[in-house]
Design a protein that fits this description.
The structure holds two protein chains of two kinds. By secondary structure, chain A is an alpha/beta fold. Chain A contains 18 helices and 17 strands. In chain A, β2, α8 and β3 form a beta-alpha-beta unit. Chain B has two domains: 318 residues, TIM Barrel; 109 residues, Alpha-Beta Plaits (2-Layer Sandwich), CATH 3.30.70.20. The radius of gyration of chain B is 26 Å and the shape is globular. The chains are: A alpha/beta, B alpha/beta. Flavin-adenine dinucleotide binds next to α8, α9, α12, α13 and α16 of chain A.
């Protein structure tokens, strides 16, 4: 359905107060769940490849053919266990992962120019079934006597918490916000995943017996030294900082938002409480900017403009994200940069200047300024790193770009008792990368605190999914007698 | 207005279930065994299988030296729709490796995996001495049991072994007796399905004092003709031979034979290891419900590798939890008694098809199936054909429906067409009772005659 058609069916600007999600069809989860027969047909279509490329492509190395075949044999619970065992954030990843760039993008069917298996939706089919039944498939391990403090209750921190609990650690999470989940709860475009999903998944982790303290900020309410005293190990999953400033006049006017605040506002509120306005201009062209413009359009803003210094080919958003925005009839102002925000108290417009690209450099074109009247401006030019917090408070080594430096295998920082993962380490990637980090760090912490004493065999399945390989016995008549490895 | 969401709560997965199995005294950590076939050809393979989770393995059938020679080009398959290897066929013989190599590897495996079941499959000429010799050699490995291969339908049968024995109950009894004279471990007799009534060979094996039976071996089959070359599909130098058929397509045949033995008054207590078309935990569980204590798998492993057992274990465990079964004995054979002779079915039972119009996708396959080939009791709105507009959702004339199930079977939508029992108010009446009562007492439950 085109946007226009949708709007004409559902008058957004009506003054009725009692609107429901049904009055905002475009904000509903865009990808529908699978019906049972759809899941069955799709599961049967999966070839059950060995050493499957999808499993390799998934940063958490979920055994994808296995969970799909479990759906095929109607063992939905077993399927969900296969997923959550490898990825504590498997419920949200099923909806928000860039599958085109990961698992589905590597499906062998693409080699035939055929539609890849719909892995994301199948994954959702299985995890939804587990949530519906409300089953906790895992158990906290026998207490091992050690404690871990986790800063940040986002995907990285919660994933670490889940595996640490299974390994028998006592775990305390310190979270700045009043709700858990990090960007999973506050940042995902509503049409990709609603908050309910993120919170259900968090509940599954917390059910393992995690102590979580909300509205507790490292640096303000909490001193790093106290953490060091109190815990045997610390995991930092603090994500990124505020949106970078534009550094132009008028940034302080009413109606100028940071991308994350704008998105968070939409997620936190009933949709009819959000004024749609007339024109929104978004600065930036990454995936976050796409989330801003599509959601602005979907809450009913008639005109939404995206301004980017470079051209379409340079934008960092995934192709399918761009197509989503194009489908939402966003106005793209390629090769423009903001030079001033207009208005006295409240935003009334923005002044942009056209640019040209010379040897990859962006140069403003003299005399090409123009203005767009607007009532909302959203800054989406990337998030800053939490350099202040991390370098001053925690006293750990950061790289030039402000990312925490870690050991690739254990995710240990330059402070031996501190481990880190997620956006704060990789500079900003996906939920699934943060989840993989949390899992890896949990094992890293265990091996550091219990050297030479690896976790018991009940942990071997999820541990294999960290590197994504397992050893198998080689055929007798093959020349190499060493154990071979295969991807899980 | 701010949103308020309540967190979800979770209940624990129900307690641990015990999959350990015992077939005629052969114990294994779970009921999933490799069948005697190429997957259980060598020690290294069997150990790799055990590493993946298989509970037991029946070694590829041993014979006397010199070992047989196999042809190259050995297997054929039929694909049905999108499904590869729905049926599988082979002209392989028993092991083509020297006897002492196999025996040495069996002993090694048994030593490394003391808790897993290692069963040695045997086939030698029908003489007492030959059987005595091979049984002693096999048992010297420390194996957990023996399986007598009376089933191989090709090659070996031409040499007076395999199905050539399995098709003659007296031979079966005689050979089982030879074996039981010396065997110290449990003996399973593997039956061929290439007979008219599997109860006779089963009874013969029992008379020979077998400890259990395993079935089915493969079914005589020709996989097809290549329409370009006019040669058999999978030909050896242009010639084919009938081979043994197995894989998903044979499961119903195997289930029938297992239930026949489980229900036969003479053999009902005979332990059974079920084989034939097991591809996932659901298939395996069906064999268990019909009276098998373990299941053996060949084709599905040949299709996907040893890893499939992981899903089988998970699926069976979760199903047992759902049904609150703690051990296999809680349900083995539970459904066997419900498979009865036709004459014991209730003629007064009535079921009719119901079409759920809210999920119907209007493919109308039920309509054409019933109209052309069943009982002409599904109708569509009368104006559909003229206008091509409006609904074409069919409905069932319940009065005419004979409850044959066809429409529900062709329907692609799960639970769109359901068969629903209708209370007739008539006391149950079986064919046996009806004929005993001089063909009286039957009340019509569906319309048998139309003018
Ligand atoms: C707008 C937007 C859209 C996105 N869309 C997608 C998508 O569709 N798919 C996808 O896979 N990824 C997406 N991502 C990326 C994804 O959200 C991140 O990669 C992921 O959330 C990183 O997890 P994390 O745990 O490292 O950090 P975060 O999710 O940022 O969590 C960090 C947590 O730490 C807390 N915290 C921070 N500082 C402190 C402190 N000093 N004291 C205590 N607590 C603190 C924060 O409140 C937060 O809860 C998106 C990101 C953005 C910004
Ligand atoms: C290639 C091949 C070789 C086989 N060899 C033997 C054998 O040596 N001894 C035996 O008892 N059964 C043999 N079988 C039969 C299997 O053990 C099994 O009974 C049959 O394949 C049915 O099971 P399935 O449907 O799981 O394949 C063989 C089957 C195949 C496909
Ligand atoms: S499966 Fe292996 S042995 Fe068989 S034909 Fe192929 S390569 Fe040869």
């Amino acid at each position: 359905m085109s946007l226009q058609a949708c709007f004409s069916r559902t008058p957004f600007m009506s003054d009725k107060n009692n609107k429901t999600i049904d009055d905002f069809p475009l904000l509903k989860e865009m990808t529908p769940p699978m019906r049972r027969e759809e899941a069955r047909v799709e599961a049967d279509r999966c070839l059950n490849c060995y050493d499957s490329p999808c499993t390799i492509a998934c940063p958490t190395h979920i055994n994808i053919p296995k969970f799909i075949k479990q759906i095929g044999s109607k063992d939905n619970l077993g399927s969900a266990i296969t997923i959550f065992d490898a990825n504590a954030m498997g419920h949200s990843c099923a909806r928000v992962c860039p599958v085109e760039a990961l698992c589905e993008g590597s499906c062998v069917y693409l080699g035939w120019h055929e539609k890849p298996i719909e892995i994301g939706r199948l994954q959702r089919f299985a995890t939804d079934a587990l949530m519906e039944k409300g089953i906790q498939p895992f158990e906290a391990g026998e207490p091992n006597g050690k404690t871990v403090g986790i800063v940040g209750g986002g995907p990285a921190g919660l994933s670490a918490a889940a595996y640490l609990r299974r390994l028998g650690f006592a775990v305390t999470v310190f979270e700045k916000k009043p709700m858990p989940g990090g960007l999973n709860t506050y940042g995902m475009a509503e049409y990709k995943m609603d908050q309910r999903v993120a919170l259900d998944e968090v509940a599954l982790v917390l059910d393992l017996g995690v102590d979580i303290r909300y509205e507790t900020v490292l640096g303000d309410d909490l001193k790093f030294e106290d953490l060091e005293k109190k815990f045997d190990a610390i995991f930092l999953g603090v994500g990124l900082g505020a949106t970078a400033p534009l550094a132009i006049p008028g940034e302080g006017l009413k109606g100028v938002y940071e991308a994350l605040h704008f998105i968070e506002y939409i997620k936190n509120h009933e949709f009819d409480a959000i004024p749609a306005g007339e024109t929104t201009v978004c600065i930036g062209a990454g995936n976050t900017a796409i989330d801003v413009v599509t959601q602005a359009k979907r809450i009913g803003t008639p005109k939404v403009v995206m301004s980017y210094r470079r051209g379409r080919a340079d934008m960092s958003a995934y192709d399918y994200e761009y197509e989503l925005a194009a489908g939402d009839e966003i106005t793209f102002e390629w090769q423009t940069m903001p030079i001033a925000i207009l208005g006295d108290d409240k935003v009334t417009g923005i002044r942009l200047q056209r640019t040209e690209l010379k040897d990859g450099k962006v140069l403003p074109i003299e005399g090409s300024e123009f203005e767009i009247p607007c009532d909302r401006i959203v800054k989406a030019i990337g998030q800053t790193k939490q350099v202040d917090l991390l370098s001053k408070t925690a006293g750990i080594t950061l790289d030039k770009k402000g990312r925490i430096v870690v050991d690739a295998t254990t995710l240990q920082t330059s402070n031996p008792m501190v481990f880190a993962g997620g956006d704060a380490v990789n500079g900003g990637a996906e939920i699934v990368n943060a989840a993989a980090h949390g899992k890896r760090a949990a094992l890293g912490i265990f091996n550091t605190l219990f050297p030479g004493n690896p976790p018991g065999p009940e942990h071997s399945d999820w541990i294999q999914t960290i590197e994504g390989v397992r050893t198998v016995r080689p055929p007798n008549h093959h020349h190499a007698k060493t154990l071979e490895t295969a991807n899980v | 207005m701010r949103k308020h969401l309540k967190p979800r709560t979770f209940k624990k997965l129900k307690g641990k279930v015990d999959l350990s199995s015992n077939t005629a005294g052969i114990k294994s950590p779970n009921p999933f065994w490799l069948a005697s076939a190429p997957p259980a050809n060598s020690g290294e393979q069997v150990m790799r299988a055990f590493d993946h989770g298989w509970g037991g393995a029946v070694w590829k059938t041993l014979g006397e030296d010199p070992a047989v020679v196999n042809v190259t080009s050995r297997y054929g398959a039929i694909d049905i729709g999108g499904m590869k290897m729905a049926g599988f066929n082979n002209v392989e013989l028993i092991t083509d490796r020297p006897l002492d190599v196999n025996l040495k590897e069996i002993a090694e495996v048994k030593k490394k995996y003391p808790k897993h079941a290692v069963i040695v499959s045997l086939m030698v000429p029908c003489e007492r001495k030959n059987w005595h010799d091979i049984v002693k050699k096999a048992e010297d490995t420390g194996c957990d049991g023996l399986e007598l291969n009376f089933g191989c339908p090709h090659g070996m049968s031409e040499r007076g072994m395999g199905a050539a024995v399995g098709q003659v109950p007296e031979y079966i009894q005689k050979v089982v007796e030879y074996v039981k004279e010396v065997a110290k471990t449990p003996v399973l007799t593997k039956l061929t399905p290439n007979i008219a009534d599997v109860r006779f060979p089963a009874r013969a094996a029992m008379a020979g004092k077998t400890d259990g039976v395993s079935l089915i071996n493969t079914i005589n089959s020709v996989m097809g003709i290549d329409l370009d070359t006019l040669k058999p599909k999978f030909a050896i130098g242009g010639k084919g031979a009938h081979g043994g058929y197995c894989g998903p397509a044979v499961k119903p045949i195997a289930l029938n034979m297992v239930s026949q033995i489980a229900n036969d008054p003479e053999t009902k207590n005979l332990p059974i290891s079920g084989i034939g078309g097991v591809s996932d935990w659901r298939d395996a569980t069906e064999f268990l419900l019909l009276g098998s204590s373990s299941v053996q798998v060949c084709t599905a492993v040949m299709h996907y590798g040893f890893r499939i057992v992981e899903d089988m274990i998970s699926g069976l465990e979760n199903w047992m939890r759902e049904h609150e079964f703690e051990t296999l004995d809680d349900f083995i054979g539970k459904s066997a008694g419900d498979i009865v002779e036709w004459k014991h079915l209730n003629l007064h039972h009535k079921t009719v098809a119901k079409i759920d119009s809210s999920t119907c996708i209007e493919c109308d396959l039920c309509f054409i199936a019933c109209n052309d080939t069943a009982h002409q009791c599904i109708v569509r709105p009368s104006d559909y054909g003229k206008t091509g507009k409006g609904w074409k959702i069919p409905t069932v004339i319940e009065e005419d429906c004979v409850g044959c199930n066809l429409c529900s079977l062709v329907c692609p939508v799960e639970e769109c067409i359901t068969m629903e029992d209708v209370e007739t108010g008539h006391a149950p009446l079986t064919w046996e009772q009806y004929t005993a009562a001089g063909m009286t007492g039957y009340k019509e439950v569906y319309k048998r005659f139309h003018d």
